[in-house]
Specification:
Length: 148
């Protein structure tokens, strides 16, 4: 069943090496989008891309660490060069430490989660918005967040 038509659209999914990211990539590819799967774990990205392609979708992998500004900039430059820019962003990357009591959470634990889940999401959304604006694209940015 087709819910919407994304033919001709380029969709970037962060955190796409597992879980919800892979699921989002499959759904968007099934709706006709060219999907770009981004994550730190590129070995897992290759497997997801292969699966999408076997099912008839257009999929590509790109390494991206949302906690690193240079990594995000390089990824968006490659997307612009190879695909003409992004139309849809599913901002899904996130990390979680093993659950622990509040008083056992260190500042290092806190900063690691915030840098990835909050600042990283902002960094990628901003890069996508700048690219969409430069390309005069009326795109969509979808932010997924969870923390416990």
């Amino acid at each position: 069943m087709n819910y919407f038509n994304l033919s001709g659209k380029v969709s970037l999914i962060t955190g796409a090496s597992s879980g919800l990211g892979v699921h989002f990539a499959n759904v968007l590819a099934n709706e006709g989008a060219t999907v770009i799967l981004a994550a730190r774990r590129t070995d897992k990205l290759a497997t997801a891309v292969e699966t999408i392609r076997k099912n008839g979708g257009k999929a590509f992998a790109i390494p991206m660490d949302v906690s690193n500004a240079e990594s995000v900039e390089k990824a968006f430059a490659a997307i612009q060069s190879e695909h003409g820019g992004v139309d849809v962003l599913v901002n899904n990357a996130g990390v979680a430490d093993d659950p622990k009591k509040f008083l056992d959470t260190t500042e290092e634990d806190w900063n690691w989660v915030m840098e990835t889940n909050l600042t990283g999401a902002w960094r990628v959304a901003r890069a996508a918005a700048l690219q969409m604006s430069s390309n005069n694209t009326a795109g969509s940015i979808i932010n997924i967040g969870s923390i416990y």
